[in-house]
TrEMBL record, chain A:
PANTHER family on file: UPF0718 PROTEIN YCGR
Name of the protein in question: Permease
Transmembrane segments: 7-28, 48-74, 86-112, 124-147, 154-176, 219-237, 244-265, 271-292, 312-333
Presence of the UniProt keyword Acetylation in the record: no
Keyword Glycoprotein: no
Highest taxon, organism lineage: Bacteria
Subcellular location: Cell membrane
Record membrane topology: Multi-pass membrane protein
The entry's keywords: Cell membrane, Membrane, Transmembrane, Transmembrane helix
A single cellular component GO annotation: plasma membrane
UniProt similarity note: Belongs to the UPF0718 family.
Chief site of localization: membrane
Species per Swiss-Prot/TrEMBL record: Bacillus yapensis
One Pfam family per UniProt: ArsP_1
TrEMBL record, chain B:
Classification via PANTHER family: UPF0703 PROTEIN YCGQ
InterPro entries noted in UniProt: DUF1980, DUF1980_C, DUF1980_N, UPF0703_membrane_permease
NCBIfam families xref list: TIGR03943 family putative permease subunit
Sorted UniProt keywords: Membrane, Transmembrane, Transmembrane helix
Keyword Membrane in annotation: yes
Coiled-coil regions, chain positions: none
Domain DUF1980: 10-121, 154-285
Keyword Repeat assigned: no
Name of protein: TIGR03943 family protein
Residue stretches spanning the membrane: 6-23, 44-62
Pfam families to which the protein is assigned, alphabetical: DUF1980 (PF09323), DUF1980_C (PF21537)
Length: 334, 291
């Protein structure tokens, strides 16, 4: 029986490999035949689209592995013991943990979902979601480099970002009491009896990887849609055409935040893009760009919408926009 | 039951296809047309993870269905694929298949001037006058730059930067292009009268005269999506003859000019030739190796 099973696996793997090879060969042939008919701008769009994916996929894979790990190894009891009951303490703690955790904005979404599902309060989850991609050593360093070795912008980005994240998470804690997930955990827990089997580590590891695979396919499609829209915007819409609000500080901050949203750049690279605008807009607007982008962007919103209730995502989006705008403007006054 | 098996099989195929896509990018070297080669290690990691996930998924195909939730703690609600309707599943999988099809079928193109135009401007605009002070804030400082690139050691970098200040003939090589460019455009006066040789593609902006063009390159920090355009203004009578996206190698003398109220460097060209697009058209900033 065991031998039969291993033959079966060998056989399927052979079939899988040959199907993939046929697929590659076929699409390459089709590409050669058709590429003359495809417009130049679509080819550029496709290149940008794929480059966003190639850049993001390794981070998403790490994200889903961590999410799988949380799902299998972290129990609700752990979380209940670790997260402070006090609202304010919980928010501060989650923001600090996020700041220490080097994550990318697309990798962090599946992690936050798992955490919230496991009983982490929503406001703590939000704090982690906001500071995770914004504050970490790589981002600090690249911001420092991008602005000609001036630490002022890097320091402002971290400081303002951290303060804004705490405020946003606190407001969220007052608005929402429940988890705001699309499928709530209680639907299941009531019916499924609690199993406390002591499984071996290999079984657990296998479970973790299986979870990661499913999570990758869950997330993957939203990442792909987001990357495609961001690439289309870059190909067809000129950045200058966005400056319809004139060149006042308020107008250009709004434009820069809009730009950060639709470009969906990785927080490790956006400082250089922000810096390239420094002869077009005042530094306040660049700060708004740098703080807003990592907190929320197009690709991120689509991923969030896939698992949180639309109303929650919308309110979060509005809150982040308003708070970031106010806090960056305040900084420029003082 | 059969349907679940088939779905697991299909997922295995997709994982393998992603795996081979990343392997193909590395073996053909196409990866440098999508992302900064400094981040290659991350996509190497992706190859290993995809291989592992493919193997796990392979074993899942013949697993018995009732084991599916065995490893789940209570409250598991992830998608085992048996909930969605068939047309919805079709849409989901087509979305995931899409980048694989275009990735294998179409080879990467090099960004051109049309994208550059969307990226904002290379040259200072007239409405930027009011922000001159902001601009000064980010001036290239005198302090030592911390650099530990995978192409350049600290020592090499320091030598090159010192060389830039002393030499009478500046050659804009690809490895140091970004740093030289930054230095020259921040302090154009220092380089007045020096000879320079540079390769780039022709880019033109509104408000430029007929005898002017910008010889530009795309600067890629992380991936093509964050490309920004950098370039030096060049002046010569025949500039009108060269349309956008023509690759030129140009030699001339550096001078300073006033453009919309901002001092920028300009090359008074004496010699130029049309060249083929170089094998590595993009410029990557000199930065510390992160991963």
């Amino acid at each position: 029986m065991r031998q039969l099973h291993s033959y079966l696996i060998d056989f399927t793997s052979l079939i899988a490999i040959s199907i993939v090879l046929y697929f590659i060969l076929f699409s390459q042939l089709a590409g050669e035949k058709l590429s003359f008919h495809i417009s130049d701008s679509f080819l550029q769009l496709n290149t940008i689209f794929l480059s966003i994916l190639i850049e993001a996929i390794p981070f998403v894979l790490i994200g889903v592995l961590i999410a799988g790990f949380i799902q299998i190894f972290v129990t609700e009891d752990h979380i209940r013991r670790l997260i402070p009951k006090n609202r304010f303490l919980a928010v501060v703690m989650s923001c600090v943990v996020g700041a220490l955790f080097p994550a990318c904005e697309c990798g962090i979404v599946p992690i936050v979902r798992r955490l919230v599902e496991k009983g982490v309060p929503l406001h703590a989850g939000v704090g982690f979601l906001l500071t995770g991609p914004l504050i970490n050593p790589i981002v600090i360093f690249s911001t420092y480099m991008a602005f000609g070795n001036d630490s002022k912008m890097a320091a402002l980005r971290m400081g303002v970002g951290f303060a804004a994240a705490i405020v946003i998470a606190l407001i969220i804690s007052f608005i929402f009491k429940s988890k705001q997930l699309k499928h709530t955990i209680s639907d299941f827990t009531s019916s499924a009896p609690k199993r406390t089997r002591n499984e071996s580590l290999t079984v657990k590891m296998e479970g973790m990887l299986k979870h990661s695979i499913d999570e990758f396919f869950d997330m993957g499609k939203y990442l792909i849609i987001g990357a495609f829209i961001a690439a289309a915007v870059q190909t067809y819409i000129s950045a200058n055409s966005l400056f319809v609000f004139g060149d006042g500080v308020v107008g250009s901050s709004v434009v820069m935040m809009g730009l950060a949203y639709i470009l969906s750049l990785c927080s490790e690279a956006d400082a250089f893009i922000g810096a390239s605008f420094s002869n077009l807009v005042p530094s306040t607007s660049i700060l708004a760009f740098l703080v807003f982008g990592p907190m929320i962007d197009l690709k991120n919103t689509i991923m969030l919408l896939s698992m949180f209730k639309a109303r929650f995502v919308l309110i979060l989006l509005v809150l982040i926009t308003v708070i970031v705008f106010i806090s960056t403007t305040l900084v420029s006054i003082f | 039951m059969v349907r679940t098996r088939f779905q697991h099989f299909f997922k295995a195929i997709l994982l393998l296809a992603f795996d081979l896509f990343f392997i193909k990018l590395h073996t053909t070297g196409d990866i440098s047309k999508y992302i900064n080669p400094k981040y290659e290690n991350m996509s190497f990691l992706a190859i290993w993870i995809f291989t592992l996930l493919f193997l796990i998924q392979l074993f899942r195909i013949w697993e018995n269905n009732r084991d599916e939730h065995a490893y789940c703690p209570p409250g598991c609600n992830h998608d085992h694929g048996d909930s969605a309707s068939v047309p919805r599943k079709l849409v989901n999988y087509s979305i995931i298949l899409f980048p694989l099809v275009t990735g294998f079928a179409l080879s990467p193109t090099v960004l051109d001037a049309s994208i550059a135009a969307n990226k904002g401007t290379v040259l200072p605009q007239s409405n930027s006058n009011s922000y001159d002070e902001d601009l000064l804030e980010y001036e290239f400082g005198d302090e030592e730059e911390i650099v530990n690139d995978n192409f350049l050691s600290n020592q090499e970098y320091d030598d090159k930067m010192k060389n830039l200040e002393q030499t009478e003939f500046i050659e804009m090589k690809e490895d140091i292009f970004a740093s030289y460019y930054e230095f020259i455009s921040d302090t154009p006066e220092k380089f007045q009268g020096k000879k320079i040789k540079v390769q780039g593609f022709v880019y033109k902006e509104e408000g430029m005269k007929g005898n002017q063009l910008v010889l530009s390159r795309f600067l890629i920090t992380h991936c093509i999506a964050d490309a920004s355009i950098i370039g030096l203004m060049a002046e010569f009578e025949q500039a009108t003859e060269y349309p956008e996206d023509t690759w030129l190698e140009l030699e001339g003398t550096l001078d300073v000019m006033n453009y919309n109220g901002v001092k920028i460097p300009v090359i008074k060209a004496v010699k130029w030739t049309v060249i083929e697009e170089p094998a590595s058209p993009y410029i990557y900033p000199v930065l510390t190796k992160i991963l």
